[in-house]
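Dear colleague,

Thank you for sharing your sequence with our group. We've completed the structure prediction you requested, and as agreed, I am returning the results in plain text so they can be pasted directly into your records. Please verify that the sequence below matches your submission; if there's any discrepancy, let me know and we will rerun it promptly.
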Amino acid sequence: MDLCIWVFLPKDRDYNNQVEIKIGKHNDIDLKTNIWNTKLPSELIYDNKTRIMHNLAREFIMDKIIDYFDKRYDIDMKI
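Please find the predicted structure tokens below.
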């Protein structure tokens, strides 16, 4: 069960309230350099209101977790 979700403010973001979310596994990142080894699926989420941005990020992350466990372990994680 190796699922990593990185949520961060990108250095070269277009908006102050822009969050990038990357989905991967522990071996997708080099722990010495803290750099990703491969191009990972990602999503940019932004909005002018922080609460809306937070909700969009949470919904995206929960969808990815549910999809991951449904496909990998055939677990019905419907909320």
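Summary note from our side: The mean pLDDT is 81.

Kind regards,
the structure core
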